[in-house]
Write a structure and sequence with these properties.
Layout (H helix, E strand, L loop, with lengths): L1 E7 L5 E6 L9 E10 L2 H7 L16 E9 L11 E4 L9 H4 L23 E5 L3 E3 L6 H4 L2 H12 L10 E4 L5 H12 L3 E6 L5 H4 L6 E4 L6 H7 L6 E6 L6 H6 L1 E9 L13 H4 L4 E4 L5 H12 L7 E6 L3 H9 L6 E5 L2
Parallel strand pairs: 8-9, 8-11, 9-10, 11-12, 12-13, 14-15
Antiparallel strand pairs: 1-2, 3-4, 3-6, 3-15, 4-5, 5-7
Helix pairs in contact: 4-5, 4-10
């Protein structure tokens, strides 16, 4: 089979399409022909060298994987050849405390696909049977690669302590990206007053046509907290969904209502943040981090799509040979939602 291997990370990463041995499955594994793999910002950070800790040498990237089962091990009873599937974002043992409490994405023995072990930028991948979730036959495999991340991850974050109710104001930053655009759809579907922000002028017109609430462009003249309070009857945001991180941290915090919650799901620039603790204390506010989704959350995402609550947003598809073009497009914020890699 062919696989796309990262040989050298950096500003212009070296990725090589190689011919490698087809995977050989064990009794409890399945062999999957890869249909599509979402290009997450995690992949970009590994490619450009920002994220290096724990990354396998010569790694095959890609953790947002969809495909079709083409071979089944002798010990697998609950799956069939020909079924459409999506994968978990990482391996998990199913036995540790984290796995037993539906947090298998925090498994003590986990390895991330496309990070600690090879991922989906290949024609075939072998998987333990409990690392796959079957999707309805009617679902499109291209969009399905987004079920775990970003759709499942966004949904899992918004479920933190039942974050908001109908009519509450929810602010979404980075609405043009994969996490933001799907989080906004989920919040709209639950009856929130959604206020979304993007820093990409090229995305504004397209975003205004999608069910992501009111969309505003961040520029030097926009007072974000003032706008949020003006559009929420001076209450502020019950939830701020922040997949951008430090660049919008202060605006996020200052937009919170009394007892509001900021949910941080990403960090793009890696900058430290200085703030006055009184901003949290006198709001009785909470700040959460959230970064994964387990098998149960992937099934929730499948349901969201199946019930037409969320539409996977894939703007562009690239083949292995176009990986550098895809890398630069995502890094330069050209993509609305996700770019997807297709074995070509």
């Amino acid at each position: 089979m062919r696989a796309l291997t990262l040989k050298n990370p950096g500003p212009d990463p070296l990725l090589v399409v190689e011919s490698v041995q087809d995977p050989v499955i064990s009794a409890n594994q399945v062999l999957v022909r890869v249909a599509a793999v979402g290009l997450c910002y995690h992949d970009i950070a590994v490619m450009n060298g920002t994220l290096a800790r724990g990354v396998k040498e010569n790694v095959v990237l890609g953790h947002e994987i969809s495909g079709t089962i083409v071979e089944i091990g002798s010990g697998v009873e609950n799956l069939q050849i020909g079924q459409k599937i999506v994968t978990s974002l990482n391996t998990f043992c199913g036995l540790c405390e984290m796995c037993m409490t539906n947090r298998d994405y925090r498994c003590q023995n986990a390895k991330g696909f496309g990070h600690g072990i090879d991922g989906g930028f290949a024609e075939l991948i072998k998987l333990d049977s409990h690392h796959v979730s079957v999707i309805p036959e009617s679902h499109n495999l291209i969009g399905a690669c987004l079920y775990g991340c970003p759709i499942g991850v966004a949904n899992e974050a918004l479920k933190l302590q039942e974050s908001f109710e109908i009519g509450d104001t929810v602010v979404i930053f980075g609405v043009g990206g994969g996490l933001g655009i799907h989080a906004a759809q989920i919040a709209v579907s639950k009856g929130a007053n959604v206020i979304s922000f993007t820093s990409s002028p090229n995305k504004l017109e397209s975003l205004e046509k999608l069910p992501v609430g009111q969309v505003f462009l961040i520029d030097e003249f926009l007072d974000i907290p003032e706008l949020v309070f003006a559009l929420s009857e001076d209450k502020g945001a019950k939830v701020v969904f922040n997949p951008v991180g430090s660049d919008v941290f202060l605006n996020s915090m200052q937009s919170l209502s009394n007892r509001g919650k900021m949910i941080v799901t990403g960090e793009v620039s890696g900058k430290p943040v200085k703030f006055n603790l009184a901003e949290i204390i006198f709001r009785d506010a909470k700040i959460f981090g959230s970064s994964g989704v387990g098998r149960a959350g992937v099934k929730d995402a499948i349901t969201l799509v199946n019930e037409n609550i969320v539409t996977p947003i894939v703007e562009r598809q690239y083949g292995f040979s176009d990986i550098l073009e895809a890398f630069h497009a995502v890094q330069n914020k050209e993509i609305i939602g996700r770019a997807v890699i297709i074995p070509d």
